[in-house]
């Protein structure tokens, strides 16, 4: 009797496990192309978002980092987009930054991935926060709690100072990366 | 059959009010407190949990006689985890926006004690139709409270509902309402009001 019930236990759990694994394998096969397409789409969209008027994007590797050079219809380089990651309040934040290397200026930024608190830190993806960086020159930024009055100031999200500061730091380190790869803006 | 329908209806109604998982049984608190800072998150969480709850109640009520009593909990968890993983992939593939805002709380549905609790207390002892009725009732009961909580917190914390700004620029959002503390305060007041209402009824 004792032996029988043990056998039944093992068989039951193994059967459920095998059926679950099989079903999930199908679900995985079915959803993975969509998930990957979403991610590729998101990245492409982010590049177009942070570089204005780009029709062609070239992927380039420099110093072990990947940069996306954006060209306009006449073949002129509009700017370079790249990702920069760093720690946020809850987890890793990945930011796509578009820069104008001729003028050492940021075009725009876009948040690719984050795990910030929904409703608070998650608002780093909002236009209000991101526009802090529009057309800012390269350098070190100050995170302030009131509307910015001069250049280099970034207004923190209310209740999410750490997330705001993290994004700012991630952008600063990203800018170092791009200036060292492109030799200080040639 | 007539009796069956009546039973099913009472099982269904049970979850909406009399044994509402959040207000009455006070289970499934992790997602309740964590993701209800916006109305949309509350709704998405409620629906995802309902789907897992109903599907696993169906499966478990169907195979309840085949599962030996001493491995029933691991068996339930395996079945629940399968459905949760399905939801996780499904949201990531077709609703990436929602998947992103719920992030870690989707996989955590596995350990939502509401789901395991209903398998143990209901699905493993009742017929499949009654288990479906229970799952739908409990799922909807869970969802409406999450949506209400989300709406209250989003309204006071951000001045909007479903992302739609209702209050003008003059409103200074009460940030505490979207923080965890706001969840406890809102839930406490809500449970208090519900208790008052049902005591009045007696």
Helix amount of chain A: 25-40%
Reading the helices and strands of chain A in chain order gives HEEEEEHEEH
Side-by-side strand order of the widest sheet of chain B: 1-2
**Element string of chain B (H = helix, E = strand):** HHHHHHHEEH
- Number-wise, the strands of chain B total 2
How many helices of chain B? The count is: 8
**If interface size is counted as residues with C-beta under 8 Å from the partner's C-beta, which chains form the largest one?**
A-B, 27 and 34 residues
Query: Quaternary status of these chains?
Result: heterodimer
Average predicted local confidence, pLDDT of chain A? 87
* Helix/strand structural class of chain A: alpha+beta
Shape of chain B: globular
Rg over C-alpha atoms of chain A, rounded to the nearest angstrom: 23 Å
Cα(first) to Cα(last) distance of chain A is: 81 Å
Strand content of chain A: 25-35%
State the strand order across the main sheet of chain A.
1-2-3-4-5
- Tell me the number of helical segments of chain A per DSSP (H or I, 4 or more residues long): 3
Question: Can you walk through the features of this model?
Answer:
The complex is a heterodimer of chains A (186) and B (202). Chain A has 186 residues and is α+β, with helices and mostly antiparallel strands. A five-stranded antiparallel beta sheet of chain A has the order 1-2-3-4-5. In chain A, strands 6-7 form a two-stranded parallel ribbon. Chain A starts with a helix and ends in a 5-residue tail after the last helix. Chain A has helices spanning 2-50, 127-130, 161-181, and strands at 56-62, 65-71, 77-87, 92-100, 105-113, 142-144, 153-155. In chain A, 40% of the residues lie in helices and 26% in strands. With 202 residues, chain B is mainly α. Chain B has eight helices and two strands; from the N terminus they run αααααααββα. Chain B has helices at 2-16, 29-34, 39-63, 72-94, 96-102, 113-123, 128-158, 180-201; strands at 160-161, 164-165. Chain B has a two-stranded antiparallel ribbon. In chain B, a hairpin with a 2-residue loop joins strand 1 (160-161) and strand 2 (164-165). In chain B, helix 1 (2-16) runs parallel beside helix 7, helix 3 (39-63) runs parallel beside helix 6 and helix 4 packs across helix 5. The longest helix of chain B has 31 residues, at 128-158. Chain B is globular and about 60 Å long. Chain B starts with a helix and ends with a helix. The relative contact order of chain B is 0.19. The A-B interface holds A 5, 8-9, 12-13, 16-17, 20, 23-24, 27-28, 30-32, 34-35, 38, 42, 115, 117-120, 122, 158-159 and B 35, 37-38, 41, 66-68, 70-71, 74-75, 78-79, 81-82, 85-86, 89-90, 92-94, 96, 101-104, 154, 157-158, 173, 175, 178-179.
